[in-house]
Amino acid sequence: MPNLSYVDGNYYNHADSKIHINDRGYHFGDAVYEVILFNEGVFYDFDAHINRLFNSLKSIEIEFSFTKKTIELIVKNLIRLNRVTFGSVYIQVSRGIAERNHTYDNLKIKPVLTIITSKKHNTTNADIKCVKAVTIRDNRWSRPDIKTTQ
To answer: Helices (DSSP H) in 1-67: which residue ranges?
Structure first.
């Protein structure tokens, strides 16, 4: 089965996919993302996810020229190329490639769009006998002494 991704306008084998070292999403987490589940060509709440993606882009002032329809076409094509019937699609848009600098005012750079698909095992409620969960406190935000790229 193919393992293709979409990076900045082109489809690549995962092994050949590259993100530029000066992508602001890499240095600063200066990006937004969405994950959308799908089953046999049907997306789970596609419009809501894409609307949130575009609202997130606007909220952090990333000017993005793609339309919602264009993203949908790229996503559907990637799913078709990868021959995945049930899974998820991960969409990320970073502010783009620029010399490492904390500020982004007046940067005239093009956002970078990356999309990947993941195959999932399709389960039904009948397949699930019991679910156990262990929860733990997430204290990442209470540790400003640790500099992570989350």
So the answer is: 24-28, 46-59
Catalytic residue among 69, 108, 132, 147: 147
Domain encompassing residue 119: 4-123
Q: Find the helix or strand (DSSP H, E) in which 72 lies.
A: helix 68-82
Residue in the block written with tokens 């050949």: 16
Residue 115 or residue 80, greater confidence: 80
106: nearest Cα among 57, 55, 63, 59 = 63
C-alpha span between 49 and 9 (Å, rounded): 21
The domain total for the chain is: 1
147 is catalytic: yes
The CATH number of residue 69's host domain is 3.30.470.10
pTM of this structure: 0.81
